[in-house]
Amino acid sequence: xxxxxxxxxxxxxxxxxxxxxxxxxxxxxxxxxxxxxxxxxxxxxxxxxxxxxxxxxxxxxxxxxxxxxxxxxxxxxxxxxxxxxxxxxxxxxxxxxxxxxxxxxxxxxxxxxxxxxxxxxxxxxxxxxxxxxxxxxxxxxxxxxxxxxxxxxxxxxxxxxxxxxxxxxxxxxxxxxxxxxxxxxxxxxxx
Length: 191
Ligand code: AMP
Description:
binds adenosine monophosphate, 5 strands
């Protein structure tokens, strides 16, 4: 099973990707997590990636593709969370999978109204502030959140159309448990 998982910022895809990868025995690959780890390296590339993330923009496609292709090396069961982020990445991924003799099982889209997603992100920021003094995801600042949604709308949302022949669309509103159940049901029906 090879799944790409996408949704807007605040759609809950990180949480659901964790649930799903455990439930289905899939390796969970989050390009966001890989990039955040690179920032901690303190290398020049890490600093550049850190600036891009903090601005709410996308890391360049060549870096994103390289990182993802390396992460899936030798794996046949994986869930990719946060990649592809645009059509160019999606095309390159299809070509890459074809070259290694495989293809995606489906593209899972977690559908959450923008207002709900925005509210979740604002709440996440407040909770983090309460819990851990001085720590927040740099990309959770209000102006950056707005930019992330803009980038999502312009670059990532068109994936719905790109993957229309293999999309599994799940309504992502409701509690974590409810959404996990909805995803499991949708995947059962797809298989
Ligand atoms: P995420 O944790 O998926 O929200 O990713 C956090 C940040 O990492 C994004 O806002 C981007 O700056 C960067 N990022 C993650 N995945 C990608 C990707 N596939 N392409 C470009 N940038 C990415």
